[in-house]
Amino acid sequence: MNQLRTVCVYCGSSLGTKAVYRQAAELLGRELVRRGLRLVYGAGSVGLMGVLARTVFDRGGDVLGVIPGVLAPREVAGEPIGETVVVDSMHERKARMAREADAFVAMPGGYGTLDELFETLTWGQLGLQRKPIGLYNVNNYFDPLLLWVDQAVKEGFVRPLHRQLFIVSEDASTLLERLAFHEPPKGVISFPGNGDRLG
Ligand code: AMP
User: Fold this and answer.
1) How many other C-beta atoms are found inside a 10 Å radius of the C-beta of residue 29?
2) CATH dotted code for 6-181
């Protein structure tokens, strides 16, 4: 079983067109607080990122936002919520968020969210990190992506083993519950001292 204290959530800097996405961010925020889990995220108050962080912070939960200086101005990122760390680059932000986290969750978002998710999966596939990864599949948003993963496995570009690098649930509580028990598949390439290689 994984000792989860901090969960890094990747999600949209937009709200999406449907209320269900905002509601799902609130549900995840409440669930993090209920379980005493700290949130690490990309900082600021924009989009689903802001809804999630505000929900956790307003309910007394711990929030750490990590933002590169270039995005830090309030007109870009909105109001700071909780503790905010300013770093030098987008790369440093991802490395810091990954170091702080015991597990990762991706929920609906755009290019930025997928970039963060896939970098984390790539590190997992290389054995550079072994922390659990979950896809919060709100409103079946990620179904086309899951179809693509199946296609990539079928066509020989993703090893079947690596399909098990992440778990999927449309329910926040179930997802966090399962993350605590999720182990990366055996046979993933692993280097000595991994976990120190994120920065
Ligand atoms: P996207 O999924 O394209 O909306 O991008 C979401 C991710 O991109 C976030 O997790 C952040 O890392 C980053 N991002 C994009 N826009 C902003 C912003 N205005 N303020 C803070 N982070 C942002």
Assistant:
1) 24
2) 3.40.50.450
